[in-house]
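Supplementary Methods. Inverse-folding protocol.

Structures were first reduced to a discrete structure-token string of length 252. This string, shown here, constituted the complete conditioning input.
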């Protein structure tokens, strides 16, 4: 899946979560010292930034299927090896990375096993392969309350809960199937503060898929109804929202 929105829209929608999550995810991955690192499905560069801090920008590579995102990351990290491409056919040689990571990506892969096999292929033997996906099935994703409001209003929602990796145990099973060894899985999470409901709601109006695209497809009166249903799920005034992802790591 690609995101046909400006990088700034994605940053506003998901960046407030993915940026702090990237540090927690990198810690979970138990990154090896030295070598090169690859960010698969880099988006606008949340994880790329963390890998650049830990390995040095010239030792980091990144790839994304959305040309607007790849272009933005190229501009933000001019010394990194940033390419336009898909996880299922990574444009890198065998065994060149000490660590290959994918943050909030597996559930968007057209073939997750093929994507993870590619991640294993480009990682040298004994190197780290790590992935994470929001706990959509458990209702602990940033978008979970939006999807709840959408379903209450319209009777349906693509809440991403049936996507690969969105439930406990699925990421570990996918890494196993892809041929990784020493696979472990756990929870990681972050908390994000908001000035109020409108601060939380506004990014959903930017059309970022899947949530924003579903909202944009509704008529105006239904969008207003979804907004008010969502408002009822939050307290008045400022609040903090805690969100959780499943994470798994293994070795090539």
């Amino acid at each position: 899946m690609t995101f046909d929105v400006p990088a700034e829209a994605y940053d506003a929608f998901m960046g407030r979560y993915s940026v702090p999550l990237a540090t927690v995810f990198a810690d979970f991955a138990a990154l090896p010292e030295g070598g090169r690192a690859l960010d698969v499905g880099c988006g606008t560069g949340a994880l790329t930034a963390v890998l650049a801090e830990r390995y040095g920008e010239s030792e980091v590579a990144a790839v994304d299927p959305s040309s607007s995102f790849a272009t933005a990351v190229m501009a933000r990290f001019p010394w990194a090896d940033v390419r336009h491409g898909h996880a299922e056919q990574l444009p890198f040689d065998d065994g060149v990375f000490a660590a290959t990571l994918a943050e909030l990506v597996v559930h968007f892969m057209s073939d997750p096993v093929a994507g993870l096999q590619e991640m294993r292929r480009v990682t040298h033997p004994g190197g780290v392969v790590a992935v994470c996906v929001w706990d959509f099935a458990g209702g602990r994703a940033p978008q979970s309350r939006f999807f709840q409001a959408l379903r209450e209003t319209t009777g349906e929602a693509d809440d991403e809960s049936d996507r690969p990796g969105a439930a406990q145990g699925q990421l570990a099973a996918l890494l196993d199937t892809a041929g990784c060894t020493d696979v472990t899985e756990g929870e990681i999470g972050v908390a994000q503060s908001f000035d109020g409901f409108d601060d939380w709601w506004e990014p959903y109006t930017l059309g970022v898929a899947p949530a924003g695209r579903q909202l944009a497809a509704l008529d105006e009166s239904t969008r207003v109804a979804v907004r008010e249903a969502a408002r009822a799920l939050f307290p008045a005034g400022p609040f903090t929202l805690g969100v959780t992802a499943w994470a798994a790591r293994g070795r090539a």
